[in-house]
Amino acid sequence: MHDPLWTFFHPRGVAVLGASANPTKLSYGVLHNLVAHGYSGPIYPVNPKGGEIMGLPVYTSIADVPDPVDLAIIVLPAGQVAGALEDCGRRGIRHAILMASGFGELGREGKAQEERLCQVARQYGIRFLGPNCVGVLDTYAPIDTTFIRTMPKRGSIGLVSHSGAVCGGVIDGASGVGVGFSRIISLGNQADIDIADALDSLAADPHTRVVAAYVEGLPNGCRFVEAARRLTARKPLVVLKAGRTPGGSRAVASHTGALAGANEAFLAACRRAGAIPVETLEEMVDAVVALAFRSPLAGPHIAILTNAGGPAAIGADQLDRHGMHLVDLSPQTQARLQNVCPPGTMTGNPVDMLGGPQAEHYTAALQVLLDAPEVDGVMVIFVPQAITPLHDVAVVVGQVGEMAPKPVVCSIFGGSGIRAAARALHAHSVPYYPTPCRAAFGLGVLWKYTCIRETHIPEPEPLADVDWAQVHALLAGKAGILDPQAGAEIIAACGLSVPPSGLAASADEAAALADRMGYPVVLKRVAPSLVHKSDADGVVLGLQTADEVREAFARAIRSGERALIQRMAPSGGLEVIVGAHRDAQFGPLVMVGLGGVYVEVLRDVAFRLAPLSRGEARGMLEEIALGRLLAGVRGLPPRDTEAVVDALFRVGWLMVECPPIAEVDLNPLIVGERGAWAVDVRMVIR
Ligand code: ADP
Ligand code: MG
Fold first, then answer.
1. What number does CATH give the domain 6-242?
2. pTM confidence score
3. Which CATH number fits domain 500-568: 1.10.260.40, 3.30.1490.20, 3.50.70.10, 3.30.565.10?
4. Which residues, other chains included, contact 109 with Cβ-Cβ below 8 Å and sequence gap of 6+?
5. CA dihedral of residues 421, 426, 427, 428 (deg, nearest 10)
6. CB-count exposure of residue 20 (10 Å: 0-12, 13-18, 19+)
7. Which of 51, 181, 398, 463 could bond 152 through an S-S bridge, CB–CB 3.0 to 4.6 Å?
């Protein structure tokens, strides 16, 4: 796989524009890290003042810098960046890291400045990171262009982040407990290189085995999803996204100046991408630590080994929350535990060795549990006690865990002496967590990853039986909210069932239409401003004769309005809502839910990105109560679930094939025992 950022990690010479001899300046920090963190190629500080910094001669102009030089780090104030980038272009440098803030995140004027950078880059064929970023770090190359305090130790975690400060905080925190990294990529405003490039780079890097992404806005959500899918075909991806609440999106908008989208769209994007979404920074770190260190969790059957009952009970509840459970230990396993554990040990699950087990008890009991065929993974809990050396327990759990083909996670629940114990565990590739809750979360991430791998989402099937030219012809010249008849015709052209219907301008026309289509029919008011027809006495159901139709027309339809005459759908159907709209970042999104008047209150809805496969459509129904209702409950017959699946699949393709459609709602789709009918179609054309 091609690494689009390869030269950023392996430049044959780096120039630092704006290098300073003043140790309180960021540019000094950059040069310091470049020199001190192992980069072995030539380093060229550039500053019109000349002189010497850290023993390196300072060039007064980038034009004077000798070959080879592949990468420029520009640490100048915003106003000087475009000019410096142009100088680099003239000098033949094709890769740059732009650190200054004061561009697109400031609004319109900043955006114009940023566009200027892109123009220069296009003119000279330069690829750049930033502006407003700290660049890259690779512990294997090695190279560190950032001014982050620590160089992390080597490891298998790759981190990409819009925020340089998140990189700094995560690295510093994780380094303190002995967690290593392979690569860090700070994106900033991603005016040129974006998160998709970064994900491709991390996918290609052989040292990176798991990726964490901190994401703010995604101007091109579809590129993100495609790159994430390429990555997750090879390694796990954990994503933390800010701006998922109204408050958070304001903070993001003023931060990197990008648009943040609704939470549903983000979760749908993660699902399509095979990525694991997380809610907090702790969760992001906890998740990648589990994935980086441990072998896959084959099943959800967990054993807890502990010296205290309370924390184990709390941990067990949390396992349940994450879709796993305590396994029933076999009589053989329990007998083996009796042989190696202190007297009085409760050998059910949790295995509670009570107060006072020594390190060797942990060693032997953990080994028994790992050997037990019924156990898929083990959570070890240790609450520090006066009589048992904390560090010894950490070391033996690490030693036994390291050799195991099954995951072991360890929670040392306490405060003092923890960091050294955490380092000891991590040195043996056993994840450490401060609480049983977070240990359960770590196991839960492993389980989720196993489930994701097993249900790899296929590409959506093509939709061959629709004549899209006909659909486009029906859409031609239309704008705004379509009347329900026009909407129904488009939906019918997509292969969905709609009851026969037509528009009538008079009572006689209405009666004639009804006679042609057959009874019973429904009459509905059609007026440009009318959205909820039944709220305005605009729906008259169950009309059996021409006279009833005439009478209903006279009663319901006001002057200048028309009536929609529609055949009644077979009675006894379940009302479902199927809808779609366009998310600003991720594009078309399809929704399904329980229809009817309670839809807003119950919020029993599921979302997926369009186009979606029939399998994904089935998954939507499985995740909400509607799916169980369709399957038949309490003496009610099962309904035609596949007809709903087909409707979702077709509406997904409609949104992809017809960009002018901004929104569509089938509310309700009436689902019978065989077949489903869209009786109310609302479509908005942009
Ligand atoms: P609105 O949503 O604007 O109030 P609808 O066209 O959805 O109007 O009609 C309201 C309700 O009437 C539907 O939810 C459904 O219960 C019923 N209904 C409408 N059209 C039909 C039809 N053709 N067959 C059976 N029931 C219908
Ligand atoms: Mg309706």
1. 3.40.50.720
2. 0.90
3. 3.30.1490.20
4. none
5. 100
6. buried
7. 181
Which DSSP string do the residues of 526-581 spell out, in sequence order? E-TT-S-TGGGT-EEEEE-SHHHHHHHHHHHPPTT-EEEEEEPPPTTPEEEEEEEE
Q: Both tokens of residue 352?
A: 């509670």
568 lines ligand 1 (CB under 6 A): yes
Mean pLDDT of 449-453: 93
295-454 is a CATH 3.40.50.261 domain: yes
* Residue 386: partners with Cβ closer than 8 Å, 6 or more residues away: none
Superfamily of domain 574-685: ATP-grasp fold, B domain (3.30.470.20)
Cβ atoms of residues 423 and 446 within 8 Å: no
Under 8 Å between Cβ of 158 and 183: yes
SS3 515: helix
Q: Is the CB of 89 under 6 A from ligand 1?
A: no
Going by alpha carbons, the residue nearest to atom 14 of ligand 1 is: 668
Q: Same fold for the domain at 500-568 and the one at 574-685? A: no
Amino acid (1-letter code) at residue 191:
A
Closest by Cα among 658, 655, 680 to 667: 680
d(CA 476, CA 467): 15
DSSP 8-state symbol, 342: P
Cβ pair 143, 39 in contact under 8 A: yes
Which ligand 1 atom sits nearest the alpha carbon of residue 524?
Answer: 6
Which token pair is 511? Answer: 């009666």
CB-side exposure of 648: number of CA atoms within 13 Å? 30
Mind spelling out the 3-state secondary structure of 18-34? CCCCCCCCHHHHHHHHH
Q: Which of 485, 491, 522 gets mutated to test ligand 1 (max ligand atoms within 8 A of its CB)? A: 522
- What does each C-alpha distance from 325 to 301, 318, 440 come to in angstroms? 6, 9, 10
For 549-606, what is each residue's pLDDT tens digit?
999 999 999 999 999 999 999 999 999 999 999 988 899 999 999 987 677 777 788 9
Token code pair at residue 264: 């549903």
Q: How far is the CA of 2 from the centre of ligand 1 (A)?
A: 54
Let me know: does 640 contact 674? Beta carbons within 8 Å: yes
Interval 128-153 mean pLDDT: 95
Transcribe 370-435 into DSSP letters: HH-TT-SEEEEEE--BTTB-HHHHHHHHHHHHHH-SS-EEEEE-SSTTHHHHHHHHHHTT--EESS
Tokens of 154: 């080597």
Please give the DSSP secondary-structure letter assigned to residue 107.
Answer: -
- Ligand 2 centre to CA of 680 (Å) is 5
Residue 628, judged by CB atoms within 10 A of its CB (0-12, 13-18, 19+), counts as exposed
pLDDT digits (tens, 9 = 90+) for 477-510: 999 999 999 999 999 999 999 999 999 999 999 9
Q: Where are the domains of the chain?
A: 6-242, 295-454, 500-568, 574-685
The identity of residue 278, as a single letter, is: V
